[in-house]
Amino acid sequence: MEVRVGPADDIAEGEVKIVQAGSLFLGVYRIDGSFYALEDRCSHDDGPLCEGEREGFEVVCPRHGARFDIRTGAVLALPATEDVEAFPVEVRDGELYVQV
Fold this sequence. Notes:
Blueprint: E1 2-7, E2 16-21, E3 24-31, E4 34-39, E5 54-55, E6 58-60, E7 67-69, E8 75-77, E9 86-87, E10 89-92, E11 95-99
Antiparallel strand pairs: 1-11, 2-3, 3-4, 4-9, 5-6, 6-7, 7-8, 10-11
């Protein structure tokens, strides 16, 4: 399934936009001019992951401090032990699309 996020220019450098795709919530990030989409759900306690602080390519869960790689969804720090899903982002005619 493809999800239209909106104009690429709507996400400023270093920012995240939360979008919904059915029952799935995604955080779409713009970092160093590239776009990344990550499941907005911490694998530790199902909390809203993408509301956390971003440090480089890492997002820190605001509830318990678990860290994930925004590019891959890989867990980087406890208390989480399972990766979250990362999704490919495509820019077409200035619009962002996520493949979920």
